[in-house]
Structure formats: C-alpha cells, structure tokens
Fold Ribosomal RNA-processing protein 8.
Amino acid sequence: RSGRSAALRARMEERLLGARFRYLNQQLYTGSSQDAARLFRADPAAFHLYHRGFERQVRRWPERPVQRIVRYLRRRPASLVVADFGCGDCTLAASVKNQVHCFDLVPLSPRVTVCDMAKVPLAAESVDVAVFCLALMGTNLQEILGEANRVLRLGGTLMVAEVASRFEDTCAFLKAMTQLGFRTVSKDLSSSYFYLLEFAKTGPARPGPAPGLRLRPCLYKRR
Ligand code: SAH
C-alpha cells in the first residue's frame, strides 16, 4: 500500500515539475532578455528546474546541437576567441581548446559569467566567433544580436542553432540578418529538430526596424 502511494506521489511530483518547466519556458520565450534576467535573479531555484526540464527535452533528440558547434570549432584554429551566449552547463567551453567566454543568467558551472546576453562585459570587436545554441529566447532579438555584432570583429563568425519549428519565414529572417550586419555563409536546414546557421559580420548593425527578425516561441507539449 505504502509503495503504491509513494509511486503515486512521485508521479504527481514529476507532473508538477513538468508543468513548472513548461510555464518557465513559456515565460522565457515570450518576454525580453531583461525579464528573464529578473525572473532568475528573483528565483534561482526556477533556473535549476528549467535546466532539468531542458536536459530532459534535448535528450530525446537524435543529436545535441551543441555537438555540431563543437565539431565546427574543432575544424577551425584553436586560437579563435569564442563567446557563448546562453552557455547553459558550458559543454562548448569544456569540449574545445579555444578561449570561450561563457555567459548565462545563473552559473551552472564556475566558468560562467553571469549577465544578460543583451549586455555582455566584453570590449567591442574582441571575439572571433559568437555562438547562440538554442539560446535566442528573448523577444528583444534585435538587441541581443546587436550585442553579438558589437563584440565580433569584422569578418567574425556568428553561429546560430535554433529549433526548426521556431522559424516562420527563414528567408525573411536571413534578410533581416543582413540589416543587422550579418551575411549568411551557410545554412543547414536538413534536421527536422534544429537549424544550424553560420553568418559573417559585414559591418555594424544598421538601426531601424528589422521586420523579418521573428522567431516563434518554442513551447513544449505536456507528455
Ligand atoms: N547553449 C546551451 C544551453 C541552451 S538553453 C546548450 O546548447 O546546451 C538556453 C540557455 O540560455 C539557458 O541556459 C538560459 O539560462 C540562457 N538564457 C536565456 N536567456 C538569457 C539571457 N537573457 N541572458 C543570458 N542567458 C540567457
């Protein structure tokens, strides 16, 4: 009897965690990066819960997008300086020889510099590669990508891995990226899970609206 009620309780707890994860996830995708920073500063436990849920989601995928970025960096000189926006558990930094600046809202690893990715403590034109791996969560995309443009040197690389279903109009998105000072170098749209986009910085971001720069929130279904 008590075994059965313990199992029931575990199942209820699991459901509750799932529901909280989905709620947090929705908040992150429907608010600005500043809202996300405020949310996790007020409730660091929420961040850890979010990460547990995130891990559970990506474990179902055939390949982790961050592994694609690792492979990409290993083909290029280890002397390139990297900035990982929304680094999570710092898998990227731990997997390559490059110097990697790791930014996230709460430190899952001692390597993390805690900050909002819309405002990172790096000098202008100081990095060779900027990475957003499943991290373009805030609604202020233009500001966030503008920050990546600021810290990248001219000709530097921007790598974006994002959930495929978030793209409403990939063409319009890529066009908007040109206004933000990024030329498309390659795009791998072959996975049904995530797209991998490589850009090169052509110059500073041009101000003004970039209407195509939109991504759908990535909402998870109850399972
Ligand atoms: N890049 C990692 C983690 C992806 S999860 C990987 O591929 O495994 C997305 C990460 O972005 C989370 O760790 C989340 O905390 C972080 N994030 C979301 N909004 C952020 C913000 N405004 N500033 C910094 N990090 C943010």
Q: What stands out?
A: The beta strands are 82-85, 100-104, 112-114, 127-133, 152-163, 182-188, 194-201. The chain has seven helices and seven strands.
